[in-house]
Amino acid sequence: MDFALTNEQREIQALAREFAESEIAPHAGDWDREHRFPREVFAKLGELGLMGVCVPEELAGAGADFVSYVLVLEELSRADAGVGVTVAVHTSAATLPIVTFGTEEQKQLFVPPLARGEVLGAFALTEPGSGSDAGSLRTTAVREGDGWRISGTKQWCTNGSHASTFVVFARTDPGTEGARGVSAFLLDADHVEVTREEEKLGLHSSSTADLRLDGALVPFDRLLHEERKGFAVAMATLDGGRIGIAAQAVGIAQAALDTASAYAVEREQFGSRIADFQAIRFKLADMATEIAAARQLTLRAAWLKQAGLPHGAEGAMAKLFASRVAVRTSQEAIQVLGGYGYTREFPAERFYRDAKITEIYEGTSEIQRIVIARQLLRGL
Predict the structure, then answer these.
(1) Strand 165-171 to strand 182-188: parallel, antiparallel, or no bridges (unpaired)?
(2) pTM value?
(3) Which residue in 112, 125, 170, 341 has the fewest CB atoms around it within 10 Å?
(4) What CATH code is carried by the domain that includes residue 203?
């Protein structure tokens, strides 16, 4: 059992932290108020190799491991959770499925521009009528000539308004119910129409779009993996993606603790710093303990994935616990700041708004419990 990071992991973590503190954190409040997607930031991250941290070097990535990628997500999310989720979906939900399941031609065509941050990727699975029950999706892909004719609608597509490459799931076997008839495809921006940019509680610096595919015609070589194996692509992608969302939640929680601690040291009441009051110290101690536990669950799941070991339940545990910690810690940060915490003068309320979605996307907390319990009871 070794809890130490390697020299390479520490260097990548330090690089991400330095960039986040200098290029992201000072602007995060403005991006939130303006609902602005900071496209220029991702080009800079690409130049540093942070848009393809765990993508192989031969595909223009940094060639680091999945643990390094998770460390980067925590640092970025600590500065701005919207930036964190943009990178998370771009990497683990759009780029890595191509690396894992794509043909050599698909990898060479799509992955290098994604890994360099020249273009952004998106993942289109959810539909208005199929959220947690992803296998009930109704988007169709019908053979026509030398390609596929794809029609349907998608919802909650992170990066949807800015992406150039979309991993899209559609039903290629309309006579088959559930997940068995689903296939995965690689689409370009001109194949999809953005019908709405969602107004959200938080993550205002990220893009969440509704999409329409109005008979988009794509060639046969845009099929990702095998026909009717798309649901396996989606589930494997989500298993890894949940670890990334856990890292995002840890970053939000750490930012909330940092803000609460700094305020508690500066704020005086009754002639003393409020950090000297036991009630505040206990809050900070509980926050720090829960964050440490969430971070270790997340790193453990990331290590298992990197080692090629089963990690579905462990990723679900990390996301379930870390997301709960993010919500509770950001709520307690507001409490420590009192009235100031409820205002936009301090970032605590932004952390609180950003944290809630980590309990919902890439599988709700209820779905995570199903995944965990299924593994726990398997064979009994």
Answers:
(1) antiparallel
(2) 0.95
(3) 112
(4) 2.40.110.10
